[in-house]
Amino acid sequence: MSAAATRIELDTDSVRVGDVLTGRLHAETDATPGGPLTVELVWRTQGQCEAEEKVVDTAQVTFGDADEAPFSLTVPAGGPMSHAGKTLSITWSVRLAGRPCVEKSLTVGPAFRNPSSA
Q1: Which residue in 84, 25, 88, 97 sits closest to 55, CA to CA?
Q2: Residue pLDDT, tens place only, 76-100
Q3: What is the value of pTM for the model shown?
Q4: Angstrom distance (rounded) from CA 91 to CA 82
Q5: Residue 117, domain member (yes or no)
Q6: How many other C-beta atoms are found inside a 10 Å radius of the C-beta of residue 26?
């Protein structure tokens, strides 16, 4: 399967820590693989600090007879949240393992707090 024939579609590009992120991996019919593929949820740091990358969840997807395969990944409740600063940036993405050109960015924000439960 060629990387150009594969793309990731997310149901939303903005989630909160602790949320479940859902989406689909799409492939052209003639490029649909027979075996399972791994989708990864990853965050990265960049800036004046040492660059770091961490895979926080994975999902195995299998296409079967379809040209798309659904997946779900859980954003850790402990974050980190997305941040775009001068000295430090934290970015999140969903990617196809082993194929760095098949990747989709997203934003992770703080958990929702219900004021009445405080």
Answers
A1: 97
A2: 999 899 999 889 999 999 999 987 6
A3: 0.84
A4: 5
A5: no
A6: 17
Pull the structure tokens for residue 5. 């024939």
Number of structural domains found in the chain: 1
For residue 23, the Cα-to-chain-centroid distance in whole angstroms is 9
Instruction: Read off φ and ψ for residue 5, nearest 5 degrees.
Output: -90, 0
pLDDT tens, residue by residue, 6-54: 899 999 999 999 999 999 999 865 555 567 889 999 999 998 878 899 9
Residue linked to tokens 């075996």: 35
What range does the domain containing 15 cover?
A: 3-99
Cβ-in-10-Å burial (0-12, 13-18, 19+) of 45 comes to middle
Tokens standing for 41? 């949820």
